[in-house]
Design brief:
- This protein has about 60 residues and is α+β, with helices and mostly antiparallel strands.
- It is built from 1 helix and 4 strands; from the N terminus they run ββββα.
- Strand 1 and strand 2 form a beta hairpin.
- The relative contact order is 0.19.
- The structure holds zinc ion.
- The site of zinc ion has 8 residues, from loops.
Length: about 60
């Protein structure tokens, strides 16, 4: 079962730093505030968890496309 946390609100996962980090946002994407690499919305593991969670309860995400 996925743990509840609010990291997604203002942090993203940086594969280079291997953790959730503050990030800069641009129309093209988002970049780690520490190393400058592109960051993901969530880690790969959490993507799986979120996908399952989203299937269970949809419409809660305030996503900006
Ligand atoms: Zn980084």
């Amino acid at each position: 079962m996925a743990t509840q946390h609010d990291l997604y609100l203002d942090e993203r996962y940086c594969p280079t730093c291997a953790r959730y980090v503050a990030y800069f946002r641009s129309p093209d994407g988002a970049w780690c505030a520490f190393c400058g690499d592109e960051v993901s919305l969530v880690s790969f593991e959490d993507q799986i968890a979120l996908a399952a969670d989203r299937r269970a309860r949809r419409g809660k995400r305030g996503e900006v496309a």
